[in-house]
């Protein structure tokens, strides 16, 4: 379970670009200058964020911090834990200077983390809390994500929610974040709704979520489901597809997470109630700053970027930065994803959504 001790402080430090002086303002350590290699291991491609946001932002930030001399070596495991271990080992063999890893399986990655540490390569857990001797962790406040989703769902259900049935469509059991989302959500849902069924979505795959939702509709009855806690936008889309395949025209409230473009469009259309907006630019930029500071021995900057503490099953008091989140609804699309240049109004308001966008003043 993550324990946030000073998230607001750590985020403000990252936002100021404390390490952003690169090679011009703060001297590098005697052993590592700007000519560094950052290994980046991302978990899968089902979620479009990794190739669209995380990798390019980290790559550009590393360049910025090292006057164009630093490189990012990127691999994606495509939801294969064994493949990710091989990728990590290859980075160890290639002697990268630091590794950022977003683990497919937080348990199995531990042996790879240990091998990296034995080789003198620091490892920072990115987005998902890996087990093993990691040097630091950066992610969003995952329990807060679940709480935010659940609060929105209860609010959407309105008065009398305690007698209404919902389905919980959680994430993958191999992802420690999923357990935290679930814990945060349950803390807000219990005693406020009836959780009629719960499912864990293997590998976060939408097809698995859809099969589970079809089963839930069969077991509970379509008219008895007042809403669905869906752990992310991919699951939300699968849930909505299952409802529509059963003839539903007005989908009950469905939550989400990640603010994917298709999810934003579903929210505008009214098919999805909400998503959780997580500032990937903020998370990715701070991760790059942490990696460069760690490998260049800039301990003051590194400590300033990791003022929170988290525990994993294998380690305690891990230096961390927990980035806050926002509930994304029709009320704040302009002030979140559009304002932060995640998407343009043109990208969102394609022909099928133009009328709905206009009614919301998005143009």
Which descriptor suits the 3D outline?
globular
Quickly count the helices. Answer: 15
Beta-strand percentage range: 15-25%
The biggest beta sheet, please?
A: 8 strands, mixed
Tally the beta strands. Answer: 13
Q: Whole-number average pLDDT? A: 91
Protein architecture, described:
The protein has 363 residues and is α/β, with parallel strands linked by helices. The chain is 43% helix and 17% strand. It is built from 15 helices and 13 strands. The strands form 3 sheets. The chain has an 8-stranded mixed sheet with strand order 1-11-12-6-5-4-2-3, sandwiched between helices. Helix 3 crosses helix 11, helix 4 packs parallel to helix 5 and helix 8 packs across helix 9. It is globular, with a radius of gyration of 21 Å. The chain starts with a strand and ends with a helix.
